[in-house]
């Protein structure tokens, strides 16, 4: 996956999430769980979902609890081991996935990566992207990295990420304390990545580059046309 594609989807979903009623808001990771179940088309063990997202069991339990409370998934025992809980997407969950993927498509502006992608394809992107956990601070680093080391303002980061200004500002402050970002002599001069920040951002970008989004199998007719 290309970094700019990743950032395009994350920005769009951040905007969609803000538009939803507070009770119904899903984190990107929760949305990705629904997309994984939708793509799988069958029940999945909670442990398998946790492994896919690189999440600890308590973290995944929290995510699936929230999804179950909203009626988006149902859970049951899988096999003889009662600890082997399986998750199943409900009709309401499928409708939620379709709605969120459609809204995400609409938030991707013309000219941005994936601006002409269909909602069904966005579902597969989110499914694949769920294997990478990126906090707000990580997204800030990636947005700055995508600017090719040019100074960037907080306002620009807010626009690039679709996050609220307080969230971006707090993330920037934390990154400055960690020595990953430096402030210029004035607000107008912007923010820049430190060598350590660039290294961290490059590692994140490398992880994203390894993400594979499954493509829809080509039809027999398409294969025949390609062979001619």
Describe the protein's topology.
Layout: H1 3-19, H2 28-40, E1 44-45, H3 46-53, H4 57-69, E2 73-77, E3 85-89, H5 91-107, H6 119-129, H7 136-146, H8 154-161, H9 165-177, E4 181-183, E5 191-193, H10 195-209, H11 220-227
Antiparallel strand pairs: 1-3, 2-3, 4-5
Helix pairs in contact: 1-5, 2-4, 2-5, 2-6, 3-4, 5-6, 7-9, 7-10, 8-9
General description of the model:
The chain has helices spanning 3-19, 28-40, 46-53, 57-69, 91-107, 119-129, 136-146, 154-161, 165-177, 195-209, 220-227, and strands at 44-45, 73-77, 85-89, 181-183, 191-193. The chain is mainly alpha-helical and 228 residues long. It has 2 domains: 3-129, Arc Repressor Mutant, subunit A (Orthogonal Bundle), CATH 1.10.10; 136-209, Orthogonal Bundle (Arc Repressor Mutant, subunit A), CATH 1.10.10.10. The strands form 2 sheets. The protein has a 3-stranded antiparallel β-sheet. It is globular. The chain starts with a helix and ends with a helix.
């Amino acid at each position: 996956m290309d970094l700019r594609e990743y950032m395009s989807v994350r920005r769009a979903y951040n905007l969609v999430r803000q538009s939803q009623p507070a009770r119904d808001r899903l984190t990107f990771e929760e949305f990705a769980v629904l997309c994984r179940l939708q793509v799988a088309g069958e029940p999945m063990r909670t442990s398998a979902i946790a492994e896919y997202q690189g999440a600890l069991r308590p973290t995944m339990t929290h995510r699936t609890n929230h999804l179950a409370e909203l009626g988006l998934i149902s859970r049951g025992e899988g096999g003889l081991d009662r600890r082997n809980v399986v998750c199943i997407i409900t009709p309401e969950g499928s409708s939620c996935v379709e709605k969120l993927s459609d809204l995400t498509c609409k938030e991707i502006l013309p000219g941005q990566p994936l601006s002409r992608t269909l909602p069904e394809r966005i579902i597969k992107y989110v499914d694949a992207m769920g294997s990478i956990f990126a906090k707000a601070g990580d997204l800030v680093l990636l947005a700055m990295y995508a600017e090719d080391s040019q100074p960037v303002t907080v306002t620009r980061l807010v626009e690039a990420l679709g996050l609220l200004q307080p969230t971006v500002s707090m993330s920037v402050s934390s990154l400055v304390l960690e020595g990953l970002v430096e402030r210029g002599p004035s607000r107008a001069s912007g923010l820049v990545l430190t060598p350590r920040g660039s290294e961290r951002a490059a590692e994140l970008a490398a992880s994203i580059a390894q993400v594979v989004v499954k493509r829809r199998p080509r039809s027999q007719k398409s294969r025949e046309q390609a062979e001619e």
